[in-house]
Amino acid sequence: MSKAQRLETKRGRELKFTFEGETVTAFEGETLATALLAAGVAAFSLTRTGEPRLPFCNMGTCFDCAVCVDGRFLVRACLTDVREGMQVNRQEGK
Amino acid sequence: MHDLAIVGAGPAGMAAALAVAEAGFSVVVVDEQARAGGQIFRRPPEAWGERHGTYRPYTWARDLIERFEDHPGIKTHFRSTVFGVLRDRDRSEHAVFDVAVSTPVGGQRITSRRLLLATGAYDMPVAFPGWTLPGVMTAGAVQSLLKSQKVLAGKRIVLVGSHPIQLILAGQLLDAGAEIVEIALARDMPGLVEMVRSLPAIPGHVSIFSEGLRALAKIARHRVPISRRTVVSEAVSKDNMLDVRLSQVDRDWKKTGINHTVEADVLVLGYGFTPSTELARQVGCDLIWNSVGGGWTVSHDTGFQSSAPDVFVAGEPTGVAGAERAWAEGHMAGLAIAASLGATIPPVALAQARRRLTGSARFAGVMQAMFAPRRAALAELSRQEETVICRCETIRNGKIEKTLQNNPFIQSASAVKLECRSGMGPCQGRYCEATVAARVAEVRKASIEASGYFNAHLPVKPVPLQDYRDIGGE
C-alpha cells in the first residue's frame, strides 16, 4: 500500500472521483497518480500473474501507473490531471 | 506549417524555441508534462496559483521560463505525447515533417520544416530482485512528486545509487519531513566532497556546489547513515514495508559478500540517467554508444544537426550532462536552426552561445567521468533466474539466458527482443534494453555496445487507436 502523504501547501479546489467504485477525494491540479498514491491505493494495476504495481518513474516513461479512465485503457496516471467525477479502474492482466 | 517543431519543453527545448522565435520564425513545442520546465524544473500546477517553483541553484531558469512562456511566436501543447514522426522527402529539397501527437483531446498532426528532439532523459534502470515491488521508485519519481505535487512518497526512505542527485534529493526529503534510513552509495566517496575540492577548476558552477554542500550538511545534521561501496541487491515486501538488502562491493562494484538489511516504505534508485532516444531512432538518426553520457546518444554536428537531414538534437539525448549543458546546447541548436531557415545570426550571439557551451562542457565532463556507472556490475544484480528484466512483459532473466543458450546466432539485444518479447510491452523496452544488452554482452563475451539497441517504430509510445483516426490524412 502506498504511504505517500500530501505536504501542507495551497492546493486547488477539492473534487471527487472514483477508483474501483470507491470515492476518492483529491485537489484540482493534482495528477491521478498523486491522488491515488495519497489515498493509499495498493495497486494501480496487476500483472498477468497478479502482482501489484505502483508508479515507478512518475514521468510517463514506465507505464506502471497505467489505469483505465472512463473506459479508456492504458492511461498514464502520472500524466493525467484529476477531474471531477472521473471513473478510474485498476488495469488488470497488463 | 510551422518552421520548427520541438519535442520537449525542458531547458534545451525552451532555449532553442526562443532562439528560433526571436529570429522571427514560428515554433511549436510538445511536452508530456503539464507546464514548461522539463523534469529538472517540475513546477507546481497552474491551478495552485503560482507561476514559479523553486529553481535553485539554476539562476537562469526563471528568466528562461518567463521569456519562453511569454513569447507570442511559440505555440505549446502540454500533456501531449509525440508518438512518431513521418517525413515527406518529395515536396522540396528540405524535409517536411509530420509529427504525430496524442493530446488530451485526441490525435493531432503537426507539420514543420525542421525538427528538434529535446527529449531529455529518464532514470537509469537497474534490475534486481524486487525492483518491480510497490514502493520501489526512481529518484526522478520521488523528486517530481515532491517538487510539482508537494507529495512525500513515504515516511521511511532508503536511497541507493551513485549519482549526486541522491544527496540533493536526500536534503529535499529531510526538509519535507521524511526519515532517511540510509543512503547507500556505490562509490568509494560521497562524490560531492571530491567535487568541492576540485571547485577552483570549474568556474561558473559555484551555486551547484553550494547546493551540494547544503545537502551534505543537512544529511550530517540529521545523522543519516551514509554507506560507501554499497549497492542494493534485493528488495522484499514484508508487512507493508520493504526489506531492502544492501551489499558491500569492491571498487568495480562487484559484490564482496557482506550484506545488511534495512526496512523502509520507499526505496529510491539513483544510479544515473539514460537519454531518451526513441524518437531519434524512429526518425533515423545515427546513435553513438557513450557509457558515461548515459548509454546510446544521438550523433550530431557542431550545430547540433543529427545525421538525419533537418533533424536537430539538444540536451540529454546528446549525452546526459545536466540542465546547464542542456540550456547551452538548446541555445546553439536554436541559432543553427534559425540559420538553416535563412536567418542571419549576429556574430555576438554566436560567440555567446559558444562561450556557454565551452563553460558547460568542462563541468559536464567532470560530472560524467566522476559518476560513470559500472554497467557490468549493475547488470550482475539481475543474474538470478527469477529476476524480472522486462517489467511490462514480466520476462525473467532465466528466459533471456535460455533464449541466448538455445539460439547461438542471437548476437544483439534486438534479436533477444524478437525471440522472447522483452521490450515489447507499453514502455517499449526503455526499462529492459540496457539489462538485455548487458546480458547479451556477457554471454557472448562481447561489449555492451556491440549488443546494440532496440529499434524504435511508430508509435514510440502506445496511444489510443482513435488518435490515429483523428490524424487521418490522405
Automatic annotation (TrEMBL), chain A:
Stored SUPFAM superfamilies: 2Fe-2S ferredoxin-like
Molecular function via GO: iron-sulfur cluster binding; oxidoreductase activity
Fetch the Pfam families from UniProt.
Answer: Fer2_4
Assigned keywords, A-Z = Oxidoreductase
Q: What is this protein called?
A: Sarcosine oxidase subunit alpha
From TrEMBL, chain B:
> What does the record list as coiled-coil region(s)?
none
Gene Ontology MF terms: oxidoreductase activity
> Mind telling me which CDD domains this protein's record contains?
GlpA-like_Fer2_BFD-like (cd19946)
Q: Does the keyword DNA-binding apply?
A: no
- Keywords attached to this entry: Oxidoreductase
Give the SUPFAM superfamilies listed for this entry: FAD/NAD(P)-binding domain
Question: Superkingdom of the source?
Answer: Bacteria
Q: Cite the FAD/NAD(P)-binding domain residue spans from the record.
A: 3-330
Instruction: Note whether Protein biosynthesis occurs among the keywords.
Output: no
InterPro entries linked to this entry = BFD-like_2Fe2S-bd_dom_sf, FAD/NAD-bd_sf, FAD/NAD-binding_dom, Metab_Enz_Cyan_OpOx_G3PDH, Opine_Oxase_asu/HCN_bsu
Protein name per UniProt: Opine oxidase subunit A
